[in-house]
Task: inverse folding
């Protein structure tokens, strides 16, 4: 047999691209007939996971393979969702035995109620779907909305904090989800939580960037600033008192919320009017262009120092 046209080789190639999981349509595309599929199942070269979904031989599936198999079993429009989407996106550890899958289809049979928790929803917008490591999955924003009815506020805040640390949080997309699904269970609580977080600066959400910037100061022998100092009635990230220089570490998303954005600008203006120099650096600048950040801080310290002595 021509190796290039060997259906079993093609089946193996497809399985390698899909976490060891195959749909019946994949087997047909590889050149297998219904009879050939049945023969391979009988000889245990294919293992039936769900109706029309198979694993290749005795290969032990990773959790990604189990997730993808559950999604495939629920139809072409299905996506991994809820706790399993959160685990796949690394927002929280795996939770529970059932695989959560969402489909916009209101009708049809549940493929395996003992293994899959199928959520049938009226709407699942195209922009609420993503392909993450080859697995159709709800976006971070939609996942947060789906988790809202099941998590207490502090647990929900921890998940949001993790999405921030991974640079996955998108406030605009989450607000869009809330606007699209205003009556979804948990939406009001999530909206209140976002408003609460926007009104304060949770230190744990800023600490990673602050530590990174502080380490840069040490590495390049900059004069050590006061950290989380109170200046003019405001709590600032880094402060060099003798130079009247303030550096703020912007962790992007919470500082981009409307109320936080307005509050930051208000206090920057008040501090500037009081004679301080206020500069902001983002996580992207500090993590990807540290030399440029240090060069600017050195120049600011020199400039502010000469201004203070003039």
Result:
């Amino acid at each position: 047999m021509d190796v290039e046209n060997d259906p079993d080789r093609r089946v193996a190639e497809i399985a390698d691209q899909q976490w060891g999981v195959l749909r019946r349509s994949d087997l047909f595309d590889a050149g297998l007939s219904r009879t050939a599929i049945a023969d391979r199942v009988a000889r245990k070269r294919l293992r039936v996971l769900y109706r029309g979904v198979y694993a290749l031989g005795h290969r032990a599936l990773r959790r990604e393979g189990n997730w993808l198999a559950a999604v495939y079993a629920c139809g072409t429009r299905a996506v991994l969702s809820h706790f399993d989407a959160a685990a796949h996106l690394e927002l929280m550890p795996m939770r529970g035995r059932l695989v959560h899958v969402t489909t916009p289809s209101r009708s049809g049979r549940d493929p395996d109620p003992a293994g899959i928790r199928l959520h049938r929803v009226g709407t699942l917008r195209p922009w609420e779907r993503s392909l993450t490591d080859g697995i159709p999955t709800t976006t971070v924003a939609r996942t947060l909305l789906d988790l809202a009815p099941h998590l207490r506020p502090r647990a929900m805040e921890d998940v949001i904090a993790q999405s921030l640390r991974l640079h996955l949080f998108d406030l605009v997309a989450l607000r869009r989800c809330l606007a699209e699904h205003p009556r979804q269970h948990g939406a009001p609580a999530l909206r209140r939580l976002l408003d609460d977080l926007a009104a304060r600066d949770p230190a744990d959400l800023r600490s990673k960037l602050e530590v990174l910037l502080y380490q840069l100061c040490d590495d390049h022998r900059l004069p050590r600033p006061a950290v989380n100092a109170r200046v003019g009635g405001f709590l600032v990230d880094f402060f060099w008192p003798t130079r009247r220089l303030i550096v703020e570490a912007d962790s992007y998303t919470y500082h981009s919320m409307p109320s936080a954005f307005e509050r930051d600008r208000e206090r920057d203006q008040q501090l500037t009017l009081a004679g301080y120099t206020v500069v902001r650096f983002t996580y992207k600048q500090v993590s990807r262009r540290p030399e440029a950040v240090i060069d600017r801080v050195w120049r600011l310290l020199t400039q502010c120092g000469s201004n203070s002595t003039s």
